[in-house]
Amino acid sequence: MNYAHSVWEIMIELAPWLFLGAGVSGLIHILLPHDFVQRHLTGRGSVLKAVALGVPLPLCSCGVIPAGLGLKKDGASDGAAVGFLISTPQTGVDSILVAAGFLGWPFALFKVFAAAVTGFAGGWLTEQYGGESIPWSDTTNHGNDHHRGGWRDALEHAEDLIRSIWGWLAFGVLLSAAITTWIPTDGFSTITGWGPIITLLTVLMISLPLYVCATASVPIAASLVAGGFPSGAALVFLMAGPATNIATIGAIKRAFGQRVLTLYLGTIIVGSVGLGLLFDSLFTTTATSAATQMHHDAWWAVASAAGLSLLLLRYTVDDARRWWATRALQSADGERLVVPVGGLTCGGCVAKLESALRGADDIQEASVTLEPAQAIIRGKASPERVHALIEGAGFQVLTSA
To answer: 370 and 285 in one domain?
Structure first.
């Protein structure tokens, strides 16, 4: 399998789940009462409720990112959101059934238990030691809460979340394809003789950056067991793989900060290895049909991959155009107004504010950047007029330039 083919195969595997995750987030955003998340996913018991919500949902890896970040955006505590992000991608009704078929019911049920335990542990640790929560400003709703409930709002919410992680998503796909292409699944078979801990740690290091779906990766895990790896190694692969990858790591660091990311990864690392060793001490699982591979060539999967590819291309062009426009504005002759802006948290926010500014007749050019969070304007508009446009779009003017 060449590299380009690996990229496309990962896109086919990833895209349907990513769109499903974004869609679930959009539906949650418009269908739940506006205070549901604040009432149920904050305070005592919120982590347990979030884990109970996430374990049966058929969302994996990148698909869970927009849904989990959507919970935080709608007011869930950091602990509840992290518990959801850890537990949800590890399991789901579909992956439970597939795991039972390949590795037996004891393995499948233990995997559900492992997802719940690590989700609760990660959420509790975040609540206790995650530090001050990084707020996802209400201005990310772009001042449209009074229109909440429409399908257009749901679609905008879903796209906003995909746009916010697109860079990490693209990087994760490219890196995962490289690992898939140049590191075969049996390339580490010699380490099985080095002891169970070394074996599990090696599988852990492989799975941490890799994009794997909880369902589609079960045959790979089963083939590892068939090739001589302990069943605990398959459990590590199916826990750490779906719960982490480059896209997830980048999104969590941005939304929650470095301390929560450390707790997130620490929970998965310690939990997966410890539970893998525990499973091997309690059960013996025989892989069946380990050579069987799951193919995601349905028309809807291909269409999803094509759609996601077009979205990523669009975001790339938009960001490149924005970078060029910002550079041109900064070097252009004449006066320009630079306004620091609060509430810019993602590419969707940037696009929203730019559209509002460029639509004004008295603004000749406008460019918005995320880092630093600011708007650069040329035209006849007064500072007061620019401030009014920014605030009208749902953002905050921090200071005057």
So the answer is: no
CATH, residue 348? 3.30.70.100
Do 315 and 350 touch, CB atoms closer than 8 A?
Answer: no
170 or 36: whose pLDDT is higher? 170
Residue 371, SS3 per DSSP: coil
| 231 and 360 share one domain | no
Same-domain pairing of 356 and 255? no
- For 179, the token pair is 């690992």
For the chain, helix (H) and strand (E) counts, in that order, are: 17, 4
Q: Which structural domain range is residue 79 located in?
A: 3-296
Question: CA–CA separation, 78 vs 72, rounded Å?
Answer: 7
pLDDT-derived band at 272 (thresholds 50, 70, 90) equals very high
Q: Cα-Cα-Cα-Cα dihedral of 216, 219, 222, 223, to 10°?
A: -130
The DSSP line for 276-345 is HHHHHHH------STT-------HHHHHHHHHHHHHHHHHHHHHHHHHHHHHHHHHSSS--EEEEEE---
Residue 144: what pLDDT?
41
* Residue 95 pLDDT level (bands cut at 50, 70, 90): confident
Contact 100, 65 (CB under 8 A): no
Distance CA 235, CA 381 (A): 60
**Helix, strand, or coil here: 139?**
helix
End-to-end CA gap in the chain = 54
Q: Sign of the CA dihedral 96, 190, 6, 63? A: positive
- 261 touches 253 (CB < 8 A): yes
User: Is 220 domain-assigned?
Assistant: yes
For residue 203, which of 178, 186, 216, 182 has the smallest C-alpha distance? 186
Q: Is residue 201 part of a domain?
A: yes
**What count of other Cβ atoms lies within 10 Å of the Cβ of residue 302?**
16
Count of CB atoms within 10 A of residue 29's CB? 24
Asked if residue 308 is part of any domain, the answer here is: no
DSSP for residue 41 = S
